[in-house]
Amino acid sequence: MVKRDNNDFAPRIGLSYRPAESWTVRAGLGTFYVQDIAETRFDLSRNLGGRSQFTADSEKPNANLSDPFKNEGGVCSNWSGPCQGPTSMLTNNTNRRTPYMIQWILNVQKQLDKDTVLELAYTGNSAHKLELFRVWNTPVNRTGPNDSRSLLQRSPFPGYGQIYTVDSQGNSDYEGLSLKGTRRFAKGLTYLSAFTWSNAMDQGSAIRNNTGDNQFATDNYNFHREHALSQFHTGRRWVTSLLYELPFGEGKRLASGGIANKILGGWQAGSIVTFSDGTPINVGQLGDTLVIGTPNVPDATGISPIPTDRSPDKFWNVAAFSNADPNLAYRFGNTGRNLLLTPGFAQWDFSMTKATRIREGHSFEFRYEVFDFINHPNYNPPSADIQSSTFGKITSARTMREMQFGFKYIF
């Protein structure tokens, strides 16, 4: 029930040039189309007379067949049975266009020796017509403190609730500069090390958003205020993985045979080291102070949200935000989307592996693997709700050091 888009023209061009024996330059530009893979079409089946939400309690059952609607719905005047508010609808824009992305890359490679390559690359893309929810029938803001109109009175169609439209109004941009070094396995060593410095922006990072991003625009009459860092934006990220075969045992630089080979030979050491900036998250919203489903946001005070004495107990500065202005009851706050950055990530994973040959076609492998080898704490995001007493205070961390052993018989 969505019209076919006959405008999906996707040209692509690529170029490869070798100005010298050890240098290669590659460039490419292309347009790519794709339908959103979320369940936006299936969701139309939810339009069966209205929608409501009810959360069951598995520990203390709160739903039963004798009165299945007891704990959902609301209170309706002149009616004693189950009651629900104005119906809401999920719709598709029948003229919705196919989302597309224009992507480009410029890549320069330098061969340092016969086994090692250094690569510098600039990558970018610009996406348009991305599928996001557009909420129609959103109540307009109150004009001031003397405006006593209800939400329904301020709605364009007061006989209905929200009307969610799967529409193609989203745009995004990405630019990244990366430096990568690669060594294929030689003399017992292989590694891949890459650093990326990038920026990603959009009006919504997914039609099915993750925790911390908006499901709907704060102001459905002004999508420009949603343009901000993408939820998956990672400014800087460096990852190095390597595998080193120890030079002991039969056929190695420090050769040994017999029992010594069985003990010292066949060992490999591996590591993955990761350093990464945090990702964006919204400042906590203030509740349904303006319209249904689109909570308001606080004001920025002009103070930096990054404390000068930053610590786990003071990761963000609550003084940077304020919800004290009574005018927030009829105007939007001036803070933007995805304004804060969560804690970064730093981890060293380490492994030791030993392969022992038993006879032709048979071998035994022992593995020892450690995740977060040095037991470095990687913090979870603190509360971003400025109305919470724990705003900006880190109260938990990701899984700490884990170790595992493995044995494998190969035949």
Mind sketching the topology for me?
Layout: E1 12-20, E2 23-33, E3 89-92, E4 100-113, E5 116-136, E6 163-186, E7 189-202, E8 228-229, E9 236-245, H1 258-264, E10 267-276, E11 280-281, E12 299-300, E13 321-322, E14 340-341, E15 345-359, E16 362-371, E17 402-410
Terminal Cα separation, in Å?
Answer: 56 Å
What is the number of helical segments per DSSP (H or I, 4+ residues)? Answer: 1
Please describe the biggest sheet, giving its number of strands, its sense, and whether it closes into a barrel.
13 strands, mixed
Unreliable runs, pLDDT <50, ≥5 residues?
288-293
Classify the secondary structure makeup into a structural class: mainly beta
**Helix amount, in percent?**
under 10%
- In N-to-C order, the SSE pattern is EEEEEEEEEHEEEEEEEE
| Beta content | 35-45%
Mean pLDDT: 86
Radius of gyration over C-alpha positions, nearest whole angstrom: 29 Å
Q: What oligomeric state best describes the polypeptide chains here?
A: single chain
Shape: extended
Q: How many extended strands?
A: 17
